[in-house]
Amino acid sequence: MFVVIQTRVQLCDCQLPLIQMILLLIFLLASLLQQYGTEAESSDVSKLQLSSIKEPNGVQESVQEKVLTVSGEGMIHSPDFPHTYPRDTMLVWRLVAADNRRIQLTFDENFGLEDPEDGICKYDFVEIEDPTEKTILGRWCGSQSVPSSQKSTGSQVIVRFISDEYFPSEPGFCLHYSLLPVSASEPEATTQPPPSLQGVEELLEAVAVLSTVEDVMKYLEPERWQLDMEELYKPTWHVLGKSFILNRKARGADLNLQREEVRLYSCTPRNYSVSLREELKRTDVIFWPSCLLVKRCGGNCACCSHRCADCQCVPTRVTKKYHEVLLLRHRGGGRSLQKSMTDVALEHHEECSCVCKDDQD
């Protein structure tokens, strides 16, 4: 009996340190969880405090939005302008004009962001919003051209700059802002009705002068044209055009390409071969080469105007270019030829346009 009792006592003594260690670990884990919860609560409180800060102009500044009071000239720009901007960045500025004045925004000539995809700025772009009208004045990317100046309809304007985690470009953008004169503070009155209220003939004339399908979408729906572009080329299970099925395209017809083909093969300057003797009315000499290529207006004007019965393709800008050719001329008596290099001036049509013959008459 004595031996058995002694063994049990030894086993109990061995288990005590293990139990104490487990209790210590549980205590430490509870302490860590309590500390983490306190820090998270403190962080939430600080965020709430930040979001409640108001600028002197009375506009509340959020955590992700910087409010700037516009009382004169200034600028905002992408980080590190005019060098490569960082990846994965989102910056928002709210410009608030003093005395309810309107704001003018002008882009710096150094402009370059990631190129668009299918004509749509999806990745890196700068966007201007007019909160008064609740409309997007524009979204820009790429580096082909500098965006045009913008004017707010009210006293506020919002500028957003977004870049994704791929392919940053340079130099980014720089936007100069200033106050419009008091005389120009009132929004310009628009006499043209919105597209939805225009008649068929009026709408036809309005869209006929637009260059790309993007311009058409901007004209029809300036607030959501980019969404309309994405929907325009998205095939559905119940409606698939023949061009999509027969050509097996990943997207629908390229409307811009179709319009460009019409432009290229309609009234445009194109290469024509002309006889120098006939062109210069010099039948007494010989030219070599006898024909040269010149730019002359050509093509049809079927899409000139639906109200014109007879359209003609005529030059609107003509220039003279000199070509060096070999001139052969009979000497006196006709027994020999005089050979010399000479310059001949030929007309080249630089620009062409379809003109209604009825209007000319």
From TrEMBL:
<dbReference type="GO" id="GO:0008083">
    <property type="term" value="F:growth factor activity"/>
</dbReference>
<dbReference type="GO" id="GO:0016020">
    <property type="term" value="C:membrane"/>
</dbReference>
<dbReference type="InterPro" id="IPR029034">
    <property type="entry name" value="Cystine-knot_cytokine"/>
</dbReference>
<keyword id="KW-0732">Signal</keyword>
<dbReference type="GO" id="GO:0030335">
    <property type="term" value="P:positive regulation of cell migration"/>
</dbReference>
<keyword id="KW-0325">Glycoprotein</keyword>
<dbReference type="GO" id="GO:0005161">
    <property type="term" value="F:platelet-derived growth factor receptor binding"/>
</dbReference>
<dbReference type="GO" id="GO:0005615">
    <property type="term" value="C:extracellular space"/>
</dbReference>
<comment type="similarity">
    <text>Belongs to the PDGF/VEGF growth factor family.</text>
</comment>
<keyword id="KW-0497">Mitogen</keyword>
<keyword id="KW-0165">Cleavage on pair of basic residues</keyword>
<feature type="domain" description="Platelet-derived growth factor (PDGF) family profile">
    <location>
        <begin position="267"/>
        <end position="359"/>
    </location>
</feature>
<dbReference type="GO" id="GO:0051897">
    <property type="term" value="P:positive regulation of phosphatidylinositol 3-kinase/protein kinase B signal transduction"/>
</dbReference>
<keyword id="KW-0217">Developmental protein</keyword>
<feature type="signal peptide">
    <location>
        <begin position="1"/>
        <end position="40"/>
    </location>
</feature>
<dbReference type="InterPro" id="IPR000859">
    <property type="entry name" value="CUB_dom"/>
</dbReference>
<dbReference type="Pfam" id="PF00431">
    <property type="entry name" value="CUB"/>
</dbReference>
<dbReference type="Pfam" id="PF00341">
    <property type="entry name" value="PDGF"/>
</dbReference>
<keyword id="KW-1015">Disulfide bond</keyword>
<dbReference type="InterPro" id="IPR035914">
    <property type="entry name" value="Sperma_CUB_dom_sf"/>
</dbReference>
<keyword id="KW-0339">Growth factor</keyword>
<dbReference type="InterPro" id="IPR000072">
    <property type="entry name" value="PDGF/VEGF_dom"/>
</dbReference>
<dbReference type="GO" id="GO:0070374">
    <property type="term" value="P:positive regulation of ERK1 and ERK2 cascade"/>
</dbReference>
<keyword id="KW-0964">Secreted</keyword>
<dbReference type="GO" id="GO:0008284">
    <property type="term" value="P:positive regulation of cell population proliferation"/>
</dbReference>
<feature type="domain" description="CUB">
    <location>
        <begin position="64"/>
        <end position="180"/>
    </location>
</feature>
<dbReference type="GO" id="GO:0048008">
    <property type="term" value="P:platelet-derived growth factor receptor signaling pathway"/>
</dbReference>
<protein>
    <recommendedName>
        <fullName>Platelet-derived growth factor C</fullName>
    </recommendedName>
</protein>
<dbReference type="GO" id="GO:0051781">
    <property type="term" value="P:positive regulation of cell division"/>
</dbReference>
